[in-house]
Write a structure and sequence with these properties.
514 residues, alpha/beta, 10-stranded mixed sheet, two-stranded parallel sheet, 36% helix
């Protein structure tokens, strides 16, 4: 397998390549120091902290713990690690929102959202998201902890979460593990049960609840919205989809191909690879023009396939080249359909550089300038560079969770069962059943993995009836998959979350009805 292939597997967002170890069950502990490669099945470590958000100082409590996943026999089959932040001195948690946060992959730990986005501590990077030393975290002055408590959940084989051996000390087979944990619907089912237990243990049943997921985490939370309602009788006020996947909403053929163009245009604009006339326009002024062309001309042209008239094909190729920064010759030789991998290699080929997949602001260098895809994903190498030492130090030194169990940034959850993915439809149904439920899409313009125009398309297709479109909203940012790594977008995206939560909290006399 070549380098590009290995990197592609690694980066399916923050997707997996680290092997897991068998973990035996042991009695619950809550020691400050729990050395050894066995994770505590049921434990908590509590620490107290102070922070300052939007100019306001307050104290908060952080709980790092593990909580079991049980089977139908009441046996612990896995334990999930989590980090729970609560603002102190809140007299009435019935009015205090609870944000339940998931990352993606599948196979990614909650680290990215925790110390990258919404938590009280933020990764030490520069204003554009590039690594800085010394590694570590600093105060996040924009965290939404001022208005909501937050729990970051690590699914099985991520973070410190592990599959457990049975009473006889035997681990479930690979097939048994997949059936229990590693698939679209298995994942949603056991996580809903886990959330029920967490809410009960922490006495948060009366609190307004919000689900937030990033990348594959959006598939999780879209499915969880309905699963929590229909199986746990737990209704949520909001779902936030950060850099969303398709969630089972089909976009194939001409739509899939054409929807890349607005992202191509944004990335080319950032790298100043467009004509002077287009570079002079602001991105916010430029992208609507590209989006209109995509919908009105590009998709119909691709739909004609090999029967498109030569002069019309030439006209479309020239327009695609104009917006993408690629040559007309490349567009024509690709039959108007340029892959994203080729785009990452081709855009800056003459400069001897490649661009990142999850965030195309990042630049890479390859062994050879020839070829049809980059040697590696520049952005992911940069992010792992920053996050891995930071989360390990943070857990041990600030949150006092000390163990020899390895923190899996990216864990082994494959093969993942992707069949019967109806999570987009599940979210639509959850919204229809729950008049309180609102949905926010957040996407970075420079994300080439889950591009922003696909996110818009999914939002448009989520409710074909248009009866609920007033409860759907979209926010775009001038960064990539993890838009919050750019300082300006960290501030704005958290503020957008804050406003979304506040605006979706119904007044006391507003009933949930149509």
């Amino acid at each position: 397998m070549n380098t590009a292939s290995r990197t592609g597997i690694l980066a399916a967002l923050l997707f997996c390549s680290v092997s897991s170890a068998a973990i035996a069950e042991e009695p619950a502990v809550s020691k400050k120091t729990d050395y050894g490669r066995n994770i505590a099945v049921d434990s908590t470590v509590v620490t107290n902290h102070k922070t300052k958000v939007n100019g306001n100082s307050f104290s908060y409590t952080a709980t790092v713990g593990t909580q079991p996943v049980w089977n139908k026999k009441g046996e612990a089959v896995a334990t999930l690690s989590y980090t729970y932040y609560q603002r102190d001195n809140i007299k009435n948690t019935a009015k205090r929102p609870l944000l339940i946060s998931f990352n993606g992959g599948p196979g990614s730990a909650s680290v990215w959202m925790d110390i990258g986005y919404t938590g009280p501590r933020a990764i030490n990077v520069d204003d554009e998201g590039y690594p800085l030393q010394p590694y570590g975290v600093k105060t996040n002055p924009y965290s939404i902890l001022d208005i909501a408590d937050i729990v970051y959940v690590n699914p099985v084989n991520t973070g410190y979460s592990r599959v457990l051996a049975n009473k006889g000390g035997e681990m479930p087979s690979k097939d048994e593990q997949q059936e229990m944990f590693f698939g679209v619907n298995a994942d949603i089912k056991y996580l809903a049960e886990w959330v029920n237990t967490f809410v009960s243990r922490n006495e948060r049943w009366r609190s307004p609840k919000y689900l937030i997921g990033e990348s594959y985490g959006t598939t999780r939370v879209a499915g969880l919205a309905l699963e929590l309602q229909n199986r746990q009788w737990m209704y949520v006020n909001g779902v936030i989809l950060v850099s969303p996947t398709d969630m089972g909403i089909e976009r194939k053929g001409p739509v899939k191909s054409a929807n890349r163009l607005p992202y191509f245009a944004a990335a080319a604009w950032f790298h100043k690879a467009l004509s002077p006339e287009l570079q002079q326009a602001d991105l916010a002024e430029f992208l609507p023009e590209v989006e209109a062309f995509t919908i009105n001309e590009y998709i119909p042209a691709l739909a004609m396939g090999g029967f498109i008239a030569p002069d019309h094909k030439q006209k479309i190729a020239e327009k695609v080249a104009l917006y993408s920064g690629l040559s007309v010759d490349v567009i024509l030789k690709s039959n108007l359909d340029v892959s994203t991998r080729y785009f990452w290699k081709e855009l800056l080929r003459e400069r001897g550089q490649t661009i990142g997949r999850l965030d195309s602001r990042y630049i890479g260098i390859d062994k050879q300038d020839v070829g049809d895809s980059p040697d590696f994903n520049a952005e992911l190498m940069s992010w792992l560079h920053s996050f891995t030492p930071a989360i390990n130090a943070y857990m041990r030194e600030e949150l006092n969770y000390k163990t020899d169990v390895k923190y899996y940034m990216l864990g082994d959850v494959h093969p993942w069962d992707r069949t019967e993915n109806k999570t987009g439809e599940n979210l639509r149904q959850a919204m229809a059943q729950n008049p309180y439920l609102n949905v926010l899409f957040q996407a970075g313009y420079y994300d080439g993995a889950t591009n922003y125009f696909d996110a818009k398309y999914s939002m448009w297709q989520l409710d074909p009836s248009s009866k609920m479109k007033q409860r759907l909203s979209f926010k775009g940012y001038r960064s990539g998959h993890m838009m919050y790594l750019r300082a300006e977008d960290l501030k704005q995206s958290n503020q957008d979350l804050r406003e979304f939560i506040k605006n979706s909290l119904p007044k006391g006399d507003v009933a949930a009805k149509y």
